[in-house]
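Second attempt. The first submission of histidine kinase had a stray character pasted in from the spreadsheet, which I only caught after the job came back as garbage. Lesson logged: always re-copy from the clean sequence file. Corrected sequence (465 aa) follows.
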Amino acid sequence: MRARRPVSFFRSVRFRIAALTTLAVAVAATAALIGLRQAFYWTLLHEVDRVLLEDVAEVTLVINELSPEGLDAIADELTRKAAGHKQHRWFARLLDQDGDRVWRSSDAEGTPPAPAKADAVPRTVGDLRTLRAATPTNPLGIASVQVGSSMSLYNDDLELIDRLVAGAVAMILIVAPLCGYWLAGIATRDLEAMTAKASSLRPTQLNERLPYRGVDDEFDRLADTINHLLARIATFVDERRTFLADAAHELRTPIAAIRSSIEVALGGERSRESYRDLMEQVLDESESLEVLVNQVLLLSEANATVDRAEPERVLLDEVAAKAADMFAGVAESRGIRLECDIAPDIAVNGIRRHLHQVASNLLDNAIKYTPEGGRVQLTLSDADGVARLEVADNGVGVSPEDLPRLFERFFRADRARQRDDTRGSGLGLSICQSIVEAHGGEITCKSRAGEGTTLTVQLPLAVDS
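This time the job returned cleanly.
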């Protein structure tokens, strides 16, 4: 038995589950954290814009109220406001109709010029957020106002968030593989147990099965599937063992008869006629042995040949007619009427010689168990995509207790219902069943003791290309 090769760590299911889990968690968490960061950024930006719009409204109100007192009064008020927002570097500019400066706060020095349009739309210029809006007509000639503030404090907050996001992603990339590998170990623990159990199975212990936990998950379904396979294998092996034992038993009889005849021949001087009789007995037993061996070989190769060979289109009516012609003389010699009702042009896919063997075995079986003066009917028809080959006789029939075992290998019916010349191997109908099932069909039997037997073969019709 070949030693089990250990699974590479990087090819193991546990590693792959852990890797996929890590990848999924990392991608999802990174996307979520980046999304939160961007949401926070847009929230901050929206808040800054709202404050700037409020500042524009406040500056406009100051201009409207203090313009009669002159520009100095307005400047003093705006200077006090700028001093209250020193940490944000808040600034203001008062502009005339041509965009020239009328007045500016001290923090406006060195800042970018005002936007060309007074559309009250916030804009980012460098690390500043600013907007320009029109003002009502006033005696000082102020046509628009620009306000702005630095984003540096907000950017510092965003940089802190970026560092937190990067740290969280790094932590996830460290923790996720460990957790994923641990969880994958829990998930594949039952698989490891199944693998260990399957590795311990031996041909002599085919009654053992993989553990079934009863939770009806994927592992239970896998165990159930493998257990069904093991059951089929066990059944197959048991059938093979029984078949070999029965075959050995059947072979023993003709071999013992041949040996006995030879021992008698060697036991002393005998007449020419006596030797001839012994040799004829040896020949008869040899022929029986040859038939039995050929049937055993045919039975063993029926399924394998169909699986290996490329099925051909076979005219089943020709096969049935040929088999009927072959047994016509045998039926006539035994005083049995052989009738045929064969529909033409019925084709199936399969192996011709095997299908001929089926028809021959059915006719041979019917003729063997039909008394003189009886009748054997061979019928071939088709319906609903199925070819139907039927062989019926009015012979001795099969008893109800024997009918379920009719297709068993080496099974022979009650000897009280057999004629002296109907000795067979008990493989004929087993061969038919194996061949028919290998061709995707089925064979059935209806019989009543003393009234006759009807054997029916159904095969799928060939599909015309």
